[in-house]
Amino acid sequence: MEDPRQNQSAIPVILVNIFAVFFACVYALPVFFYDEKPVAKPDSSVIVAPPKPDPFLGISLEADAVYVYDTVNGKALFAKNEEAQLPLASVTKVMTALVASHAPENTMVKVDERSLADGPGGLSLGEKWDLKTLLNYTLVVSSNSGASAIAGAAGAVLSDESGILGDGEDIFVDQMNKTAKRLGLEQTYYLNPSGLDVNDDLSGAYGSAKDMAELFDYILKMKPSLLSATAYDTSRYDSLNGVSHRAVNTNVLARSVPGLLASKTGYTLLANGNLVIAFDVGPMHPVIVAVLGSTQEGRFTDVEKLVNASIKKISQGE
User: Fold this and answer.
1) How many domains does the chain have?
2) Which of 47, 93, 146, 169 has its CA 20 to 30 A from that of 38?
3) Are 255 and 303 a contacting pair, CB within 8 Å?
4) Strand partners of residue 247
């Protein structure tokens, strides 16, 4: 016969086991239904580097409008009023060069009285040049008379090819505007081939910093040698008359910007100081800096600051 005391002593043990199973089930249910995983604790041994400061942040510039364009990554590194329409001054001559490049290189250019109307620009009445040589000289020294002579001669060729009658320079300027429209330069139009102010209130050409950067980008890709002469501090060019001309680049940064590929200055009373450059920040990595509406000296310090900031920005891997 069983001892009832033994059954009574087993009851607490059974109750303990029941409660243990109950609480185990309660604990396991959320895991079963939600499949939650324990949150890993952060590894205190991993050091997260702070974000690198933007080299363009707080940069002080005199220019009214700026556009810095990374041509490889197709993005702006920095922009300020980049679409504002402003006087271009002699930056105009970049489009003059592009349009003139479609005329035969053996085109002969003669300096006439009309060409010299805005100043000699280092040229003499009756002097003769081949187109390519005068084009390089004109870009480097920013010769207004050279731009006018080129426009007249190349415009005459374009007139003959198209059958359009009219003044050679007028036809040439019309072609400059058509080219600007074709390239999508929305803020750009030209009244003359030099960019010289027409009067106290009207510039010879207008455009934006972004437009000028895009124009440089197009030339670097489609006609990379067109502006190559503007990368040198000094050069020498001979006219067909045998006259030797020493050309000093109007861009004083030509001797100091690393990897300079192309440049063009501009200055008039209406435009103030303009400067657009393209430089190689690394192997086959051009960056274009366009500055409009600075001061005569400030355009150079502005571009210098932007070049240094661009080099730092790209070295950060951004």
Assistant:
1) 1
2) 47
3) no
4) 235
Spatial contact of 275 and 300, defined as CB atoms under 8 Å apart? yes
Domain extent for 273: 65-315
The DSSP output letter for 126 is: T
Instruction: For residue 267, give the CATH number of its domain.
Output: 3.40.710.10
Cβ neighbours of residue 78 closer than 8 Å, sequence gap 6 or more: 56, 59, 66, 67, 68, 306, 309, 310
CA–CA separation, 170 and 155 (whole Å): 7
Q: Please, how many CA atoms are within 13 Å of residue 84, restricted to the half-sphere of its CB?
A: 16
Beta strands in 94-175 (DSSP E): 108-110, 128-130
Q: Quick check: is 105 in a domain?
A: yes
- The pLDDT tens digits along the chain (318 residues) read 444 444 444 444 444 454 444 444 444 444 444 444 555 555 556 666 667 899 999 899 999 999 999 999 999 999 999 999 999 999 999 999 999 999 987 899 999 999 999 899 999 999 999 999 999 999 999 999 999 999 999 999 987 776 677 789 999 999 999 999 999 999 999 999 999 999 999 999 999 999 999 999 999 999 999 999 999 999 999 999 999 999 999 999 999 999 999 999 999 999 999 999 999 998 899 999 999 999 999 999 999 999 999 999 999 885
Is residue 266 within 8 A of residue 81, CB to CB? The reply is: no
Residue 240 lies in a domain: yes
- Structural domain contains residue 5: no
Query: Which one-letter amino acid corresponds to residue 113?
Result: E
Q: Is the residue at 311 inside a domain?
A: yes
